[in-house]
Amino acid sequence: MAEYLTENFSLQEMIRSSFATRKGLDNTPTARQRESLVRVCEVLEEVRSLLGGRSLFVSSGLRKGRVNDDQGGARNSAHKRGLAADLDNLPNGNYESFLQVAPYVLRREFPVDQLIGEFFLPDEPRGGWIHLGLADEQKTPRYQILRAAKVGGRTRYLVWNDPWELA
Ligand SMILES: [Zn+2]
């Protein structure tokens, strides 16, 4: 029986990691990480409603310690604390969905610290993925809209600087 953190999001989908399974790494949440995952799922419920109420595929949630670091995640990634989710294969396309969600973050209707368009390619609306990260409970979210891109072979996080597309 799947255990749900919120109505539509299960604990299992927020902690599963094929990398961890393959490498034999532990990805079991602590009580605190679990509480953080619940907060993420509460925001995901709002995103899900906004995008039409269909299922959202979480490609990555919690990535504890080496589960994150050994597969090249950012050292300070919110995934390590259970404060982030990556969304992929979205029904309306990842890029279109990103454009739908971003204004709600900018207007501070969704308590998101960083919404990142990861490696979107203009001619591939289903490429890339969306990273949604929350602030630690005692911190104020930054409501940042960023995009990740490879610049000179390195990942750079740029400010999303095209307000017309977000309007
Ligand atoms: Zn992510």
Structure overview:
- The chain has a single domain (11-166), classed as Muramoyl-pentapeptide Carboxypeptidase, domain 2.
- It is built from six helices and six strands; from the N terminus they run αααβαβαββββα.
- Strands 1-2-4-3-5-6 form a six-stranded mixed beta sheet.
- With 167 residues, the chain is an alpha+beta fold.
- Mean pLDDT is 92; it is low at 163-167.
- Zinc ion binds next to strand 2.
- Zinc ion is lined by residues 60, 79, 84, 86, 131.
Largest sheet, strands/sense/barrel: 6 strands, mixed
- CATH C-level name: Alpha Beta
Low-confidence spans: 163-167
The CATH architecture can be given as 2-Layer Sandwich
- The number of distinct β-strands equals 6
Give a quick precis of the structure:
With about 170 residues, this protein is of the alpha+beta class.
Describe the protein's topology.
Blueprint: H1 11-15, H2 18-23, H3 31-50, E1 57-60, H4 65-69, E2 84-88, H5 94-106, E3 114-118, E4 129-133, E5 144-151, E6 154-159, H6 163-166
Parallel strand pairs: 3-5
Antiparallel strand pairs: 1-2, 2-4, 3-4, 5-6
The structure holds zinc ion (ZN).
Zinc ion is lined by residues 60, 79, 84, 86, 131.
